[in-house]
Amino acid sequence: MVNTQSALMAQAQELMKQKDNIEAEIRSLQDELQSQKVGMTDRLVDSNGFPRSDIDLVAVTTARSNIVKLKNDHKEIMLQIEEALHAVHAEALAEREKKKEEAAQAALQGESSSSTTVAQASQSGGGSNTVEASLTPFAKVNAVAPDSPAREAGLLQGDKIVAFGTVTASTPNVLPSLSEHVQSRENKPILVKVLRGDASELQSLILVPRQGWGGRGMLGCHIVPV
pLDDT tens for residues 152-173? Predict the structure, then answer.
């Protein structure tokens, strides 16, 4: 897919070079008309209807004809460039979605492995305290900004966070640790587990911290201790 994207970009760049060449030719022909002190619509005959003697009629008519042709070529190449850029954008979007899906699957596989370990510990005895601690919320989502990574992940106002990647209620200095974890995971998926609603339903979400989403910070949500 990356090779396809590179090929599409190369095609778009080649089209833009052709566009630049066409524009350069048009400017050259317009300069030629300017040297004759005529434009595209000036009359080429005098008041008596005879060809003007102060200009090179062949050069002027040829330049005008070529300009018309090149302007039509320019319109066509601009349409081709637009289509090529749309194709590049679509391919890049598909690549990002693929990477996001792969990251989510990897994170969910890690969650499955972690759940198996907890289940084994519980079966071996003495694991109930571990399970209970893992469901203890340590923070609450107080607000979620529109179009933010938090909103894209599915976080909602009022969600109670029980796990944020490796950070849990048993983590020392839990909120500073959460902030450090976010900084270390920029553009990388984090498995977030929250309790939601009156029924305290456990939800597992994939959050990818990033800059440049249009707001402050890399999450786009306000997290407070419970």
Answer: 999 999 999 999 988 999 899 9
Of 65, 46, 66, nearest to 55 by C-alpha is: 46
Place of tokens 């090929």: 7
Q: Is the pTM of this model over 0.70?
A: no
Query: Which three-class secondary structure string do you get for the chain?
Result: CHHHHHHHHHHHHHHHHHHHHHHHHHHHHHHHHHHCCCCCCCCCECCCCCECCCCCHHHHHHHHHHHHHHHHHHHHHHHHHHHHHHHHHHHHHHHHHHHHHHHHHHHHHHHHHHHHHHHHHHHCCCCHHHHHHHCCCCEEEEEECCCCHHHHHCCCCCCEEEEECCEECCCCCHHHHHHHHHHHCCCCCEEEEEEECCCCEEEEEEECCCCCCCCCCCCCEEEEEC
- The contacts of residue 148 (CB under 8 Å, 6+ apart) are 213, 214, 215, 219, 220, 221
Task: Using alpha carbons, list the distances in angstroms from residue 87 to 74, 195, 214.
Answer: 20, 41, 25
Residue 26: how many other CB atoms lie within 10 Å: 17
pLDDT band at 115 (very low <50, low <70, confident <90, very high): very low
